[in-house]
Amino acid sequence: MIFIVGGAGYIGSHVNKLLSNEGYKTLILDNLSKGHEEFVKWGKFIKGDLKDKRLLARIFKEYDINAVMHFAALTDVRESIQDPGSYYKNNVKNTLNLLDAMRENVKKFIFSSTCAVYGNPLEIPITEDHPCNPISPYGRSKLMIENILEDYSRAYDFNYVSLRYFNAAGADPQTEIGEWHEPETHLIPIILDAAIGKRENVQIFGTDYPTPDGTCIRDYIHVMDLANAHYKALRLLEEDKSEIFNLGNGNGFSVKEIIETCKEITGEKIHTIESKKRPGDPPILIGSSKKAKRILRWRPEFADIKDIIETAWEWHQKLNRETI
Ligand code: UFG
């Protein structure tokens, strides 16, 4: 059985779907602070929090868990700057609870890390050996866990794979699940909200970055491609190996380019306003995923940004038909 912590959230739920389709049994733990019970369509669900050490001890005693995947974290860079305490408690302290509870019983761990561990890149595309100098408490909280994993795995004899996601986007092509944050802070769903008339305009955070059109450039990677990398990482752990991988498409799109592509796909007018820079935003983040391609034999299936946005649009329309 695979224990998916945070499996009711955006990325965790897509991983749950993919693993379940591959025949794995899954157990989902989620406190539903960000996740949605409606997204747990596969596997067994326990509502609970990583703060609850007794619950964790009971879960590891009761269930035959072969591997742990950990998605449960706060992920908003700006919020982490305003309230670092919540980030260190949720993302670091709670992860320690999980690692301490599992280490006697489970020898395989997959961690949701982020390109935010790199900070402002010195070189593009970013490879895994690029120095890690995070510029936000969010990025630092994830890097702290990566460091802890290095020490823990050596001392307590388990293997781990840490996956540094670039910008997760898109949705399950069958539109059973997708991106649903409240409040929404991510660029693509915000633009799609404007396309369906749920918000009046899209703020462009910063227009004088050192990029061709002055707006930030990001590497968008489809959530099903991320899910597939977790499946491949599980197989790598069977070989008793620990590794860190970037997961991105290797190409970047500016905020303005994403808005234009969304206009094209939705056929809607999208009003924009130029706003101040958002703190903690590096100008360009593009990842090299050569290592994942080589070692995991992973290939993004949704390499075209249009395909990514199309799946996001399909889901976005469905979500808003059903919840508004
Ligand atoms: N943006 C806007 N307007 C908005 C929302 C976003 O201009 O209303 C811009 C942001 O400033 C950024 C880009 O669109 O330049 C993408 O923003 P998102 O919020 O969608 O995603 P982030 O780039 O902030 O987040 C990603 C990952 C995080 C990681 C972070 C590192 O999702 O896990 O990059 O900076 F921490």
TrEMBL record:
Q: Which domain of life is it from?
A: Archaea
Record-given protein name: UDP-glucose 4-epimerase GalE
| The NAD-dependent epimerase/dehydratase domain, residue ranges | 2-248
Tell me the protein family, please.
Answer: Belongs to the NAD(P)-dependent epimerase/dehydratase family.
Q: Keywords for this entry?
A: Carbohydrate metabolism, Isomerase, NAD
The secretion signal range is none
Q: Which cofactor does it need?
A: NAD(+)
Q: Which organism is it from?
A: Methanothermobacter tenebrarum
NCBIfam families the UniProt entry points to = galE
One Pfam family, short name: Epimerase
Q: Which CDD domains match?
A: UDP_G4E_1_SDR_e
